[in-house]
Design a protein that fits this description.
mainly alpha; flat
């Protein structure tokens, strides 16, 4: 988490350089998005320390901070999506969703979260080891899907279609079914 806080400092500075000096929408969008994601990890670590002081207020600060950090990531992701593929009114799926640009949250952030979950499953020993490996595969497919939607746009492209089919019809459902059965066996609902 300390590393994430340092990365926030670095990406925030790079964002300022890209936005003000270079005036690059592509780089400023990228650094703003990364800064928001790194900020969320740093805020969780800060919450872990501050919750002993005042748990409710620390949680409130965490929720506000996470909302702001994800807003920053969304803002940067939207700018990045438009810089990579400038919108054209002739293609209906060309304009990114302003709330979830090209699946930044749905695929990119969820893939990152699932990768961390898989890592913890593998390291913790509380779940079957194979579940962690399946989580890695799903996480990678989600991130590939986000990158495909960011760069390619065409839903019939193999870069989008293959991860969608593999993860949507096989990997992700099996992962969550296995996770649910493991939780039920351990007495968690």
């Amino acid at each position: 988490a300390g590393t994430c806080a340092i990365l926030v400092g670095i990406t925030s500075f790079l964002y300022a350089v890209a936005f003000i000096v270079l005036q690059s929408v592509l780089l400023s969008g990228l650094f703003l998005m990364l800064s928001g994601l790194f900020t969320s990890a740093a805020l969780v670590a800060v919450y872990q320390r501050l919750r002993e002081t005042e748990a409710d207020f620390a949680l409130f600060a965490l929720l506000l901070g996470l909302t702001g950090a994800l807003g920053s990531a969304i803002h940067g992701g939207y700018d990045l999506a438009n810089a990579i593929n400038p919108p054209s009114s002739s293609i209906p799926y060309d304009l990114p969703n302003p709330v979830d640009p090209r699946g930044l949250l749905t695929f990119g952030v969820m893939g990152l979260a699932l990768f961390i979950v898989a890592l913890l499953i593998r390291d913790g020993g509380q779940f079957p080891g194979g579940l962690g490996y399946l989580g890695y595969v799903s996480a990678i497919l989600l991130v590939l899907l986000y990158l495909g939607r960011l760069v390619v746009l065409n839903p019939s492209s193999a870069l989008i279609l293959v991860p969608t089919l593999l993860n949507g019809f096989l990997i992700n459902p099996v992962f969550y079914l296995w996770l649910g059965m493991s939780l039920l066996r351990s007495g968690s609902t």
